[in-house]
Amino acid sequence: MFEVRIHGRGGQGVVTATEMLSVAAFEEGRHAQAFPSFGSERTGAPVVAFCRIDDKEIRLREPIMQPDALIIQDPTLLHQINVFAGLKPEGYVLLNTHHSFESIGLGDFAKTLRPERLCTLPATELGLKHVGRPIPNVPLLAGFAALSGIIRLESVIKAINEKFSGKVAEGNVNAATEAYALVKKEMEERAHA
Amino acid sequence: MANKPFAITLKPGTSLNNLTGSWRTARPVYLDRLPPCNNACPAGEDIQGWLFHAESGDYEQAWRALVENNPLPAVMGRVCYHPCESACNRGQLDSSVGINSVERFLGDEAIRRGWKFAAAAAASGKKVLVVGAGPSGLSAAYHLARMGHKVEIQEAGPLAGGMMRFGIPKYRLPREVLDAEVQRILDLGVTLKLNCKVAHIEQSMQDGGFDAAFLAVGAHIGKRAMIPAGDAAHIVDAVSVLRSMEGEDKPMLGRKVVVYGGGNTAVDVARTVKRMGAEPIIVYRRTRDKAPAHDFEIEEALQEGVMIKWLSTIKQAGDSSITIEKMALDDKGFPQPTGEFETLEADSVVLALGQDVDLSLLDGLPGLEIKNGTVQVAPNMMTGHAGIFAGGDMVPSERTVTVAVGHGKKAARNIDAWLRGTAYQPAPKHELAEAGNLNTWYYSDADKTVRPMLDIIRRQTSFDEVQGGLDETTALFEARRCLSCGNCFECDNCYGVCPDNAVIKLGPGKRFEFKYDYCKGCGLCVAECPCGAIKMVPEDI
Amino acid sequence: MLKQTEGSKAVAEAIALCRPEVICAYPISPQTHIVEALGEMVKSGELPKCEFINVESEFAAMSVAIGSSAAGARSYTATASQGLLFMVEAVYNASGLGLPIVMTVANRAIGAPINIWNDHSDSLSQRDSGWMQLFAETNQEAVDLHIQAFKLAEELSMPIMVCMDGFILTHAFERVDIPSQEQVDAYLPPFDPRQMLDPAEPISIGAMVGPEAFMEVKYLAHAKQLQALELIPQLAAEFKQTFGRDSGGLVRTYRADDAETMIVAMGSVLGTIKDVVDEMREQGHKVGVLGIISYRPFPLQQVREALVNCKRFLVLEKSLAVGMGGIVATDVRMAVRGTGLKGYTAIAGLGGRPIPKTSLHKLFLEAEQESLEPVTFVDLDWDAVNKQLERERQNRHSGPIAENMLHDKGMSTAAKFG
Amino acid sequence: MGFQTVKFYQTGTFTVGNRLLAPDERSVQAGEMRSNSISSGHRACQGCGEALGARYAIDAAMAESNGQLIAANATGCLEVFSTPYPESSWQVPWIHSLFGNAPAVATGIAAALKVKGKHDVRVVAQGGDGGTTDIGFGCLSGMFERNDDVLYICYDNEAYMNTGVQRSSATPPAARTATTMPVGNEPGNVFGQGKNLPEIAMAHGIPYVATATVADLRDLEYKVRKAMKIRGARYIQIFVPCPLGWGTASDATILMARLAKETGTFPVFEAEYGEVTGVLKIRNKLPVEEYLKPQKRFAHLFGKHAHPEMIARLQAIADRNIRKYGLLQDQES
After folding, report:
1. Which of C97, C157, C203 sits opposite B12 (nearest CB)?
2. What is the ipTM of this complex?
3. Which CATH class is domain C2-243?
4. Which residues of D26-62 are buried (b: 16+ CB within 10 A; e: fewer)?
5. Is B in contact with A (3 or more beta carbon pairs below 8 Å)?
6. What architecture does CATH give domain C251-377?
7. pTM as predicted
8. Structurally, how many domains does chain D consist of?
9. N or C: at which end does chain B have fewer Cβ atoms within 10 angstroms?
């Protein structure tokens, strides 16, 4: 079982992101369970949502306390709560920022994790560029696909098309595609560095 | 219901099993009360009864109900002083119902449409002699004829009608109206012999083979007063004046005519001579409010230009003037001389001081009692002589056409009973329907309709009828102002206001019934009955 | 059709397949997504011949359903928590009048303190209301139970609550098989009301019943629920025939055959329990599970049969009878009366407190060792509780409990995740 | 108002029946075939205004709907006296659910009828003033706001009579009830509180709002029939005196209603979409004493320890009604 936790703020599509992640997994014939943290649903408040992916039926209903992957949609949360709580040592971290881990002061923390499983992505910019809204969730999902290989980009695109239609879908697909490529490129560059 | 939830779901209307009548401590009962109009009517008319039919526009039915008691509605609608209207409870609400005008409308309508009386009952084989074709005699003849008796009227005068013709001026009662109503009575098979003065009643009965007689000769002899008068003074009595108006030779009274008296006859004479071009002055010893004449008659006379000297007596009459003395009312309201005199121009003086009865036909008849110039009768209208009944002005009574008509009806019923060897038992009188018995909320506000009056110039110069009749709309309106005091008119209020549906509506004309199984005795039906036709009676507990 | 979808959406689709005729909606978390989805379906025409009424309160929601059901329409509403309590008078009335209304309860705690997260306090507070209550373990079961619920309610002319854990199920995206309209139509006949307000055959519904018949009326309601004990397994079997799935029924056991320690629970926590049991089984512990689906009527016999061969049982419940202990546990103990079985009660997950596997491992081991207190409060912060109790002992005016405890726990007013 | 066209008839215009009217102009209550929606044998007190008002109203609604009517009833006197097991007084399909939910139940019935295509079957909800102005107010307002196809009839007897005469928000100032006893400086119910529900209903902008009394049957029937011709939420408040609660004679029920109207204490009017469109004029204006004096609930205003100042305040309320609604014959309304 693979467990993903997504952090963000109300209005950034955190819950939608886990749902789309679960849909993407479903599209690949796997079982998935997405659920929110059931917090208050006000804009701007810290929000967390979860997604489990497995090849068999998922019965577990506890919150994800030791995630295999973290997607952090808003870097300002780093100063507010311990978003990394319970992260497994082999865990993946995808952070929405155009800075590096080092430049935002997470250099030391990053060193405790596997470097090939860490990545930052200017997802808000991608959202603005392709969809016209500063919503980072879809680019991050695609970036996560690129980073972890847990799901495929095609599945993310299917989930996008299930969730959205028309221009919004198109923009999101473009954003996802670019994000996927960016992360792939980043990972390759890092692998060759 | 078997498949419906137990107890929670119920069958409709099952509360009929719960007989709430057991809660009652008092029960409502329907009753009829005597309407004040009926109670006041000297002719014994069922006024409310005929108004009921008039309300729905069924005038013929209304007329038929009316003539059950009074065969002269067109006359009555003109000359009756309508005590019914004085008694009418509506008078306490706005103004009394114009019963008289509706009656006249019905009477005129009957003449116009030529309605006839219903055929007489099977012939009884009895013969009755009616003496006098005045209102009382005609009334008795009518009722007796309808009861199946053979009736002959013997009238001393040249025409039927009595005082209706010879006492009431044309401008109040057009003669064609009178003639029509008299003729309708004669059409029932009544024989009328005119110019046939009964000299001796027993003889006349014997001659004609009559089984009974009704005497209604009226009071036609004018009373005289002791007035010192010169030889040239022209003094006549009012009855003679009015009677002569019906003949070829009109009375010669001159220009200045003094009428002495304060009754309706005095006013009639004054208004009559006014129409003949004279200048009448009524001299009366008391005040207007003490005068026996109806105030509306005095008012109409004044409107027409009749002069009236109140609180005056004639002290002396000369050939072209009279001397009058001013009077003053004492503490008890009696006029007393003041010693103050005045002279009035007078070409003639008409005495209108009342009339006496010519009782000569009774001379020698055993068993009779005569008092104050009138024949005394028992409650059944029979004189002291068996089989001879009397009524109208010749018996002690208020001398009006309506009273006379009532006498005729009452006498007829008693004669009929006497002829059949029984006694007439009038139906017991219901308790009076008083204003307090009514819930007048339910009656719409509706002021009395005013009858049209002839314009004043024509009143002063012609004998055209002064007071007009109602047209159909106004008559209907007036009829519908009736409150139906004391008698159910099927307004459905009791049926409607019962919170317990404990009143059964039986259908038109059949009134209502209480369902005492359910009536809780709240009394709402009584309180909300407009006409006082229900009352509460304590239960026997 | 298999779908990856939200529990609420799946339930809404299932409701729509049942062809409801009147739906009353009043928003309360966490049931909102269900009626929102239904409202959209009605408005778009996707769900025809249905009146969707936005009422002004839950009391009105149930009252409207009472009216529509009494007038012969298949009627549905959904609620939770305070909403259920706000409609309680009408809840009792609906059952008293025998109206087969189906209501989803997205189970949620009851305040004060106000709390929007899951536990079973709300529907369990209505255990004596005369309504049937079925608890879903998964969203698939929630879908399936709603389809069965209409049939069950209308068969007996009695209302039913389908209970699903708020947020945990209602807001969870997971794989659900949504049946086809043909399948549902084959299973669920049109509503043929036992009685109906109809000018053609007037009846008076809702009489005042005095002492002379009230007990009989109440017994008849009880007797109906006893009939439901037979009907529920039948309908589940028929369901399996039509849809090819096991869903519903009165109870369901897991690895219970040779179990010495049985864990009894309701709702979604059964999934976590099963995972824990699997792990413990691997370690050689003879642990099994009894899931109760039908809480009302309570299947005393089936519970007894499921437990009679074990040595001890633990009832894990998301509800608390304050001043007494377990609510479900009381009924379970009633079922095994006379067997001498050892029974334990664990109160867990109140107000959305996570029930992690680790805590259950520990709890079940203690149960197996019979070292538990009769009533255990899982993951209770004894430190905070004891401090407050001490404060109250010392000072009558000790201040608001919740704030004191947050202070003790060093928390700011911003909630932690998890 | 429209029904006044029968004015021509001098006898019986205000009575239940009138033989002089054309059959189609006659009142429902005058008909031998009226539905008698509440049968005899109900357990209402003697002279009960509510039993009377309910039959008036429901019979009229039955007549207008050709018998296609369903009624929802709030808890209260009307419910208790009409349906104690095992007997029901109702002839119409009828349901009683709770005290405070009759409007919502009616909404549900209307929704069911709509969805089943039974457009000819109509729905009324009914309750007393407590069930309407107090406990049922929320549901009523909701029903109004949604403009559900329900005629709600409030039988207003100005207190909770079923439970023993306690104050409701429809209880008039100064009135004695079991919870506003005639003691202290300002005996009886307080001034300045309470709800004017017809006006609150009007504020919802619903198609039709009217008041009526059991003293004006023709007006009442006209309003019920008019309301039944309209679709959407409609509200009629019928003034139904209570002999028990008011301390009046059982035969004075209609008189009391009449006096309430004639003094201006209870304005009788109708309104469409929030605007007053007609008033029933006062025929003979009377001082409020005429209305108050026969009622024991106002007895403390008279006699040895009289409160003329409170009577004056009640008169002022009546005068305000008269001014506001134009209740006098020559007033614009």
Report:
1. C203
2. 0.89
3. alpha beta
4. bbbbbbeebbbbbbbbbbbbbbbbbbbbbbbbbbbbb
5. no
6. 3-Layer(aba) Sandwich (3.40)
7. 0.91
8. 1
9. C
